[in-house]
Amino acid sequence: MKAVILFQSTNHAIWAENELKSHKIACRMISVPRHLSSDCGYCVQIDAENKEKAIDILTTNNIEFEKIENL
Amino acid sequence: MLKDKENNGVIYFDNAATSFPKPQCVTNAVVHYITQIGANPGRSGHKMAIEAGQIVYKTRKSIATLFKLKNPMHVIFTSNATEALNTAIKGVLKKGDHAVTSDMEHNSTIRPLHEMEKEGTISLSMIQADKIGILNPEKIRKAVTRKTKAVIINHASNVIGCIQPIKKIGKICKENGVIFIVDCAQSVGVVPIDIGRDNIDILAFAGHKGLYGPTGTGGMVIADGFDFKKIEPLKYGGTGSFSDKIEQPDFLPDRFESGTLNVAGLSGLLAGSEYIQKRKGGIEGILKFKTELQKYFIQQAEMFVPDFICYSASHLPSTDVVAFRINKFPISEIAQILSDKYGIMCRQGLHCSPLAHQTIGTFPEGTLRFGFSIFNKKEEIDFAVQALKSISEGRKK
């Protein structure tokens, strides 16, 4: 199963993607699913099993995110 | 005549205005973005938009590393240092505030402050530098009052190159709860800057001078931990975030980055920033190299050019900039001859800094200015010294 992490802006999404990748978390940028947000940008998709690890990395690096949702 | 084919056959000493040539990697990066990526970052979710977003992020990260800043989102891109200074000055100062600045500032600082003073929004104290352009931090301490909101100082003079004791001034600001805004247009990429160590709250930088990026690039950097909500945005508009709301986002960098960024320019800025940071010896090495060129020029010109008058103090902390004249010889004529006859590009006049020229005693005529880059060579300086010697001697015949 996949999960998506939503951010306040695409600047934060790309920052997160770079940090997650540097910690060997598989992820990719996808368009924000319209049912989750009205934003016109993109979000980070990860494997749902990595959610907790991803939250740890984001928190440690002070990268604020809006929510994590399973797809 | 000494000709450098790579530089269109000219000797370029106007690097304090904007650097030339740019490293090849800068040109390649701009071309790559325009021809291969092209999209608008942060607006759409397609592959090209994400690639454009990656460039912007990497540039932010590179600039953050340069200033020893932890949070790359605190790097705000603007079209130049002037826009960054206007954002900081007009964003921080409110009705009834007092600000402190100096008579060594560029008009990018003086004009917004003067305008705010003239319209009755703020009161302003001007600190006088000594004859060689250096500010005494204790004078700034004395000028700070209970109403002082901000101190705005340039790090390195665009007129004579002198470097101000910003760490000491910043400490005074910290002790008094005053916001310290530093104009790093001339010092970025030339003098090592640590935003935390140097007690800076907000700095403005140019991307097209010491960082060798294209013109139209620059930015405002906000210190980690500084409450950025103390700065009102200068521009409001689309950010690609919170598109369902009509309020401006209140987080960084979106709060200050409305409208499509200059991604072509930022591609080049990233390449330039990486180029100088990866250069052997780093920024310290660049400063050493450039000040050696400055000292060499002054020494050679004082030795060989009759009536040469130098206004830059190379024995004090300085960048590569040299302000000079040939006694009683109109500077505009010298600059014209240097350009037309010798292919030497330099700037003459007041350098957008009338107050600084008053301080060093060269107002209203101004001076000639050479500013060196990492690509200049001693042979070019030798050639320029011979040219100035001929010009000075020719007048006497």
Tell me what the structure shows.
The complex is a heterodimer of chains A (71) and B (397). The model of chain A has no long low-confidence stretch (mean pLDDT 92). With 71 residues, chain A is α+β, with helices and mostly antiparallel strands. The longest helix of chain A has 13 residues, at 10-22. Chain A has a single domain, classed as Alpha-Beta Plaits. Chain A contains two helices and four strands, in the order βαββαβ. Chain B is α/β, with parallel strands linked by helices and 397 residues long. Chain B folds into two domains: 5-22 and 282-396, Alpha-Beta Complex (Aspartate Aminotransferase, domain 1); 24-278, 3-Layer(aba) Sandwich (Aspartate Aminotransferase, domain 2), CATH 3.40.640.10. Chain B has helices spanning 24-37, 47-66, 81-92, 107-118, 137-143, 166-175, 263-278, 282-304, 331-342, 354-360, 378-396, and strands at residues 11-12, 75-78, 98-102, 123-127, 148-154, 179-183, 202-206, 218-222, 308-310, 322-326, 344-345, 347-349, 367-370. In chain B, the strands form three sheets. A seven-stranded mixed sheet of chain B has the order 2-8-7-6-5-3-4, sandwiched between helices. In chain B, β3 (98-102), α4 and β4 form a beta-alpha-beta unit. In chain B, α3 runs parallel beside α4 (107-118) and α9 crosses α11 (378-396). The radius of gyration of chain B is 21 Å and the shape is globular. Chain B starts with 10 loop residues before the first strand and ends with a helix. The mean pLDDT of chain B is 95. Classes of the chains: A alpha+beta (71), B alpha/beta (397). At the A-B interface, α1 and β2 of A face α2 of B.
Which protein chains make the most extensive interface, counting residues with beta carbons within 8 Å of the other chain's beta carbons? A-B, 20 and 28 residues
State the helicity of chain B in percent bands: 25-40%
Q: Percent of residues of chain A in helical segments?
A: 25-40%
- Helix/strand/pairing category of chain B: alpha/beta
How is the largest sheet of chain A built, in terms of strand order?
2-3-1-4
Reading off the top of the CATH hierarchy, the class of the largest domain in chain B is best stated as Alpha Beta
